[in-house]
Amino acid sequence: MNSRKSTVMGQFYPADPDEITDMFAHYNKILDENVEDKTLLKQKPRAIIVPHAGYIYSAFTANVAYRLLENTHA
């Protein structure tokens, strides 16, 4: 199988995979510490609309959407 190296790595998102992992762990910590009504994080969406700009602009919001989507697999 052929694969293509990303041409935007380090531009729209960090080039280091560990930095990406740390970024989302940080976003989850912020979310967990600041959502007063924890039932919001237990919603089961039937669909999500996720922003897809560079991580600096959209990663926090996209993370929330995908986190909620995980609830549909439980």
Characterise this structure:
It is a single chain. This protein is mainly α and 74 residues long. The protein has one domain (17-73). 46% of the residues lie in helices and 0% in strands. The chain is built from 2 helices and no strands. The chain has helices at 17-34, 55-70. It is globular, with a radius of gyration of 14 Å. The model has no long low-confidence stretch (mean pLDDT 93).
Q: Main β-sheet: number of strands, strand sense, barrel status?
A: none
| N-C termini distance | 33 Å
Into how many domains do the coordinates divide?
A: 1
Structural class by secondary-structure content: mainly alpha
The number of strands is 0
Uncertain spans, ≥5 residues at pLDDT below 50?
Answer: none
Strand content: under 5%
Helix count, per DSSP?
2
Helix and strand string, N-terminal first?
HH
